[in-house]
């Protein structure tokens, strides 16, 4: 007589148990589920500190350059720099883009601090009511500036603004809609996209510096290209961050 089959967990035979385990491993892309979880935890442990370091550096860069632009606008005699003169000639548009943008970018990181969301939800909501309108005003006047300011960097700069500007405002509208529906996770993901695009302004400055240091190119020569790189790289980084930290 054949020997009785040995049974595994839940009464499965040893062969069935091995087959079920193989299916679970296949479902996790060929890795054991425990190994997959450890790998994800390692990625998260690396990505989160790097992400916060990038945010801190971006805010610092933006504060420096915003201060320079504001000083250019109030200088006596007015600045004649080809880049700065655009702000001098259109101070209203410039201020309505820069000042609300600074509020959004300096206070915005607080919205992603988990401890504040858990322990100070009232503060989180109050900041949201301030920051969303600031982002909307700054985004709208970025588009206005692309038409009112003299072109700097050629058609490529305007094309990048007209491409990423509506994406920024669309993402902001989606984030607002999701929070109104109490869809917290989706709200968080869309706000990450909004913030990453806003931080693209800092990334543009980094790429300009790299092009000038490596290729010796002038700011006007690379300005359009760096617009596409700055916003594009940040949007990709946002998607990586969302997937790594998704709950």
Give a written overview of the molecule.
By secondary structure, the chain is mostly helical. It has one domain (12-245). The chain is 80% helix and 0% strand. Helix 4 (91-107) packs antiparallel against helix 6 (121-148), helix 7 runs antiparallel to helix 8 (184-215) and helix 7 packs parallel to helix 9. The protein is globular. Mean pLDDT is 83; it is low at 4-12 and 25-33.
Number of strands: 0
Average pLDDT, rounded to a whole number, is: 83
Task: Give the class from helix and strand content and strand pairing.
Answer: mainly alpha
Strand content: under 5%
Query: In one word, what is the shape?
Result: globular
Radius of gyration: 24 Å
The separation of the N and C termini measures 53 Å
Number of helices: 9
From the structure provided, what is the oligomeric state, counting identical versus distinct chains? single chain
Q: Give a short account of the largest sheet.
A: none
Q: How many independent structural domains?
A: 1
**Low-confidence region ranges:** 4-12, 25-33
Helix content: over 70%
Salient structural properties:
single chain, 247 residues, 0% strand
Question: How would you sum up this structure in a few lines?
Answer:
Mean pLDDT is 83; it is low at 4-12 and 25-33. It contains nine helices and no strands. With 247 residues, it is an all-alpha fold.
Topology:
Blueprint (H helix, E strand, L loop, with lengths): L13 H14 L5 H42 L10 H5 L1 H17 L6 H6 L1 H28 L6 H26 L3 H32 L3 H27 L2
Helix pairs in contact: 2-4, 2-8, 4-6, 6-7, 7-8, 7-9, 8-9
């Amino acid at each position: 007589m054949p020997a009785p089959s040995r049974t595994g967990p839940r009464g499965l035979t040893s062969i069935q148990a091995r087959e079920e385990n193989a299916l679970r491993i296949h479902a996790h892309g060929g890795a054991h589920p425990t190994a997959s979880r450890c790998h994800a935890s390692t990625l998260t442990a690396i990505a989160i500190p790097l992400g916060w370091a990038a945010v801190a550096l971006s805010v610092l860069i933006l504060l420096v350059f915003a201060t320079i632009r504001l000083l250019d606008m109030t200088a006596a005699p007015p600045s004649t720099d080809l880049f700065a003169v655009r702000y001098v000639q259109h101070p209203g548009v410039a201020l309505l883009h820069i000042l609300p943008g600074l509020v959004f970018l300096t206070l915005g990181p607080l919205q992603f601090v988990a401890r504040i969301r858990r322990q100070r939800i009232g503060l989180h909501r109050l900041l949201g009511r301030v920051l969303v309108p600031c982002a909307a005003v700054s985004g709208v006047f970025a588009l206005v500036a692309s038409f009112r300011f003299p072109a700097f960097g050629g058609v490529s700069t305007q094309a990048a603004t007209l491409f990423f500007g509506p994406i920024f405002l669309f993402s902001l509208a989606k984030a607002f809609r999701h929070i109104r529906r109490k869809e917290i996770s989706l709200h968080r993901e869309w706000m990450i996209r909004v913030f990453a695009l806003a931080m693209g302004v800092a990334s543009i400055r980094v790429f300009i510096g790299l092009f000038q240091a490596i290729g010796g190119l002038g700011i006007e020569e690379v300005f359009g290209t760096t617009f596409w790189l700055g916003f594009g790289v940040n949007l990709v980084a946002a998607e990586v961050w969302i997937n790594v930290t998704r709950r």
